[in-house]
């Protein structure tokens, strides 16, 4: 009799242990699912479509970083100028086709921390700080609630009618556009000494931080030119990521201080645009920097 009671007690203890373990595992799994869900939910906040984890990609895959320059009322044919109408058409295409426009931070977290992003993600960037980026591009970005990054040449701010005013910069920064550096004077960085590179990187950063009251942590090298000193000076100055102009899709392979971007030129039709955002190996007839060199001669002082 005593033996039977002892055995029953043992069975009861085992049952209780199994139950406790079961509850613990179930609870752990539940909270694990919650963590995974909330991680995705952060990214999904500004995304309207239906989504599952299979729509997400990791940083072993590339995404397109679009590079725009001037956005005038009408293009003159200069490759630096994408007309307001063409820009609007391209942004509408992104909207209508369910693209997610990353913020600078989301892009950084994707590349560096491997935080997954939606497969249909792009980063929109603008160079040089033309005033028409405020007058013509910004209203379109606002309309579609799109994120974008603007790389500013700080010596040109508040000068004449071609370039942005400080107050326009502040308005865009306050409304979610990331304002970042394109140096003080658009010099070819690889031709400067380390000291001069550091100066133009730091001075432009200080100026933009003074205007927008936000940290400036991204730099686009003028013409995409850089050398070892550029990377060192960028790091020393507090930049966490730098962009070039190679014309390829962006991934971690070239490092965080040489992130690729894709040119968007005025002679593209919507088919060319579509090819650049859907095909990482889209055909490039002329290396973009060769076209750009000629255009800059007539455009930038
Ligand atoms: Zn530039």
UniProtKB/TrEMBL annotation:
Signal sequence coordinates: none
Enzyme class: hydrolase
InterPro entries (UniProt xref): Glyco_hydro/deAcase_b/a-brl, NODB_dom, Polysacch_Deacetylase
Major localisation: secreted
Location of the protein in the cell: Secreted
EC assignment: 3.-.-.-
Gene Ontology molecular function: hydrolase activity
Transmembrane segments: 9-29
Coiled coil: none
Keyword Amino-acid biosynthesis: no
Pfam families, per the entry: Polysacc_deac_1
Keywords: Hydrolase, Membrane, Signal, Transmembrane, Transmembrane helix
Ranges of residues in domain NodB homology: 120-301
The protein's name: Polysaccharide deacetylase family protein
The organism of origin for this protein: Clostridium neuense
Biological classification of the source: Bacteria, Bacillati, Bacillota, Clostridia, Eubacteriales
């Amino acid at each position: 009799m005593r033996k039977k009671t002892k055995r029953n007690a043992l069975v009861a203890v085992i049952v209780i242990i199994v139950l406790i373990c079961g509850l613990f595992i179930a609870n752990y799994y539940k909270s694990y699912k919650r963590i995974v869900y909330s991680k995705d939910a952060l990214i999904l906040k500004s995304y309207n479509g239906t989504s599952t984890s299979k729509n997400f990609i990791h940083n072993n895959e590339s995404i397109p970083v679009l590079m725009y320059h001037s956005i005038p009322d009408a293009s003159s044919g200069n490759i630096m100028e994408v007309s307001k109408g063409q820009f609007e058409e391209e942004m509408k295409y992104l909207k209508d086709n369910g693209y997610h426009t990353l913020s600078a931070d989301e892009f950084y977290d994707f590349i560096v921390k491997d935080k997954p992003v939606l497969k249909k993600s792009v980063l929109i960037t603008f160079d040089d700080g033309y005033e028409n980026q405020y007058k013509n591009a910004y209203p379109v970005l606002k309309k579609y609630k799109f994120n974008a990054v603007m790389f500013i040449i700080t010596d040109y701010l508040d000068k004449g009618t071609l370039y942005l005013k400080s107050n326009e910069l502040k308005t865009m920064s306050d409304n979610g556009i990331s304002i970042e550096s394109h140096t003080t004077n658009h010099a070819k960085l690889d031709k400067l000494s380390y000291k001069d590179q550091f100066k133009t990187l730091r001075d432009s950063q200080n100026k933009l931080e003074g205007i927008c009251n936000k940290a400036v942590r991204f730099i686009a090298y003028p013409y995409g030119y850089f050398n070892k000193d550029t990377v060192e000076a960028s790091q020393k100055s507090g930049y966490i990521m730098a962009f070039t102009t190679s014309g390829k899709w962006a991934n971690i392979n070239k490092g965080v201080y040489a992130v690729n971007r894709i040119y968007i030129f005025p002679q593209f039709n919507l088919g060319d645009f579509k090819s650049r955002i859907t095909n990482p190996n889209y055909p490039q007839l002329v290396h973009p920097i060769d076209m750009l060199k000629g255009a800059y001669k007539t455009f930038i002082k």
